Amino acid sequence: MDATEKKRIAAEASLQFIEPGMSLGVGTGSTVNCLIELLPTVRDMIDGIVSSSRTSTKLLEDHGFEVQTLNEAGDLDVYIDGADESTKRLHLIKGGGGALTREKVLAGASRRFVCIVDDSKLVGMLGEFPLPIEVLPMAQEFVSRQLLKLRVQPVWRERFVTDNGNHILDIHDMQIPNPVELENRLNQIPGIVTVGLFAQRPADILLVASDDGVREMRA
Ligand code: 5RP
To answer: Domain count of the chain?
Structure first.
């Protein structure tokens, strides 16, 4: 099975968590794009829908959904999104697509966070995928200097501006044995808007697609 087919079956498996009358949060990325293709099949069950990016909003609208703001929707019943890496404790790296801030807000506002990945994303330790950090443009150099003091390698994502008008810095070659602690530490640096570690609020359910089908993991 190729990666696209795995993403599709993971997305399909996540539909079981959508129940009648629910408000749904939709993430961003190629795995979520597979989900958006399938969402019309459960349209009648969805009471409200909120998205984590302009790209996903546009796709949802193309499929006939009226997308609400989180302010309009209130708390969400379920949030479905992909990830760049996950451990078996369901700690994640997210933000490869640059939508990490709104993704973290929607995950935080949701009663249940269902993460959909193919098996290449399941890792023993986070950090092989560069850790995205969203930064206020005026604090760009200051944040870089603070990170260099932590002996990590920050690389600016060139010509990339987030939906919030901010910049992204990717930290390469870092091993992350304690994601909760690192997330907390990086959150203390002024100018950092969002760290792409989802450890303080991990996923609740991870659906991992492989050649053998979709495996459900819980924290
Ligand atoms: C976007 C994200 C995505 O969830 C993550 O990059 C995974 O994307 P894909 O499903 O394309 O592999 O965090 O900001």
So the answer is: 2
